[in-house]
């Protein structure tokens, strides 16, 4: 059986590192572990992995600095694994260039799902944003036709609503921060400190897509951080 991908784990807590290594090895990933930031950076430049799992609280340096250094030369997907639960830390990690953020403790299924999503969006080190179709349950989004259907019925969205849904769907499974969404939809000169227009549009979208907007099935709020759309069941072709 062929190894899927090479993953470097930068984590100083031995028990967590062993858990991750055992889990990933059992699912045919090649795993390289580092217990501090300098060792991790050395391994990244030496092995050029397919993905990096990064703890922020390392003994010799802040994980944020590793994100920034790697992003100076590579788009290797980075998933932060950290005990830091503050929303501001999550936003900073995502805006600094990480692809996702998992808060400790986390389960095997969640870890594997986040890894699959990150790898799917970075095929061959290139960020993939244009999938032909998004599909989950009864929701289908055809990007080439700009068509959204639910239970076989076309859903009429405004231009802004479609742009929002399309952006989230093309990055399904990933958290997009409020600033990222606002910059991509309304432009770099929009007021990033005012999320009201985004929240209003998202409320309209949920009323059109969700059976119960208070308990969404497709688009989830990461409180204080941004939004995540459920990962597509449609494979890239």
Give an overview of the whole structure.
The protein has 237 residues and is an alpha/beta fold. Helix content is 38%, strand content 22%. It is built from eight helices and 14 strands. It has helices at residues 14-26, 37-47, 63-71, 87-96, 108-120, 159-170, 178-186, 196-209; strands spanning 6-10, 30-34, 51-54, 78-82, 100-103, 122-123, 126-127, 133-136, 139-142, 147-150, 153-154, 175-177, 219-222, 226-229. The strands form four sheets. Strands 2-1-3-4-5 form a five-stranded parallel β-sheet, with helices on both faces. The chain is globular. The mean pLDDT is 87.
Could you list some keywords that capture this structure?
about 240 residues; single chain; alpha/beta
Strand content range: 15-25%
Question: What's the Cα radius of gyration?
Answer: 18 Å
Oligomer: single chain
Order of helices and strands: EHEHEHEHEHEEEEEEHEHHEE
Number of helices: 8
Q: What class would the helix/strand composition place it in?
A: alpha/beta
The main β sheet shows up as: 5 strands, parallel
Task: Give me the secondary-structure topology.
Layout: E1 6-10, H1 14-26, E2 30-34, H2 37-47, E3 51-54, H3 63-71, E4 78-82, H4 87-96, E5 100-103, H5 108-120, E6 122-123, E7 126-127, E8 133-136, E9 139-142, E10 147-150, E11 153-154, H6 159-170, E12 175-177, H7 178-186, H8 196-209, E13 219-222, E14 226-229
Parallel strand pairs: 1-2, 1-3, 3-4, 4-5
Antiparallel strand pairs: 6-7, 8-9, 9-10, 10-11, 12-14, 13-14
Helix pairs in contact: 6-8
